Amino acid sequence: MVIDKNEGKTTTNFFNSIVNHPHVIYLYPNALYAEIEVDYKKNEITLIRGHGYPESTIENGFDWEFDNTHPYEYDDECKNWEFYRIPNGEMLNCYPERELISNIELLKEIKNLVN
């Protein structure tokens, strides 16, 4: 399972599916920072808990111990990219927007991690 930039917002069900999956590749810091609720009948998404909401002291909507928002949230140059291990997979230490379209070594590493 590869987790990309889903804007960091997810339902509790989806969050639980991801963190309980045996092998996840987290491509973006801050990938799971906010808990939302989805009402498909009303076509509405409601923020339940996330960065500073509903209290300023909240860092992560799920209080996830592997949240890697800080210090990697604003590294969009990704010059010193690396994956590091957590219990259910690997996390990338930067936002790879530019690198995903041009950095062959990064793409090879992702492929290696998937296999």
Structure description:
The protein has 115 residues and is an alpha/beta fold. It has one domain. Helices cover 20% and strands 23% of the residues. The chain is built from three helices and seven strands. The chain has helices at residues 12-19, 69-72, 104-114; strands at residues 2-3, 9-10, 24-26, 34-39, 44-49, 83-86, 89-92. The protein has a four-stranded mixed β-sheet, with helices on one face. Strand 6 and strand 7 form a beta hairpin. The longest helix has 11 residues, at 104-114. The radius of gyration is 15 Å and the shape is globular. It starts with a strand and ends with a helix.
List keywords for this structure.
alpha/beta, four-stranded mixed beta sheet, 115 residues, 3 helices
Question: What's the topology here?
Answer:
Elements: E1 2-3, E2 9-10, H1 12-19, E3 24-26, E4 34-39, E5 44-49, H2 69-72, E6 83-86, E7 89-92, H3 104-114
Number of E-state strands: 7
Percentage of β-strand residues: 15-25%
Would you tell me the overall average pLDDT? Answer: 90
Give the quaternary arrangement of the chains: single chain
Radius of gyration over alpha carbons?
A: 15 Å
Biggest β-sheet: strands ordered side by side in the sheet:
1-3-7-6
Please count the helical segments: 3
Give a short account of the largest sheet: 4 strands, mixed
Q: Percent helix among the residues?
A: 10-25%
What class, by secondary structure content?
alpha/beta
Number of domains: 1
Termini gap: 11 Å
Q: What shape does the CA trace take?
A: globular
Helix and strand run: EEHEEEHEEH
Q: Unreliable segments (pLDDT under 50, ≥5 consecutive)?
A: none
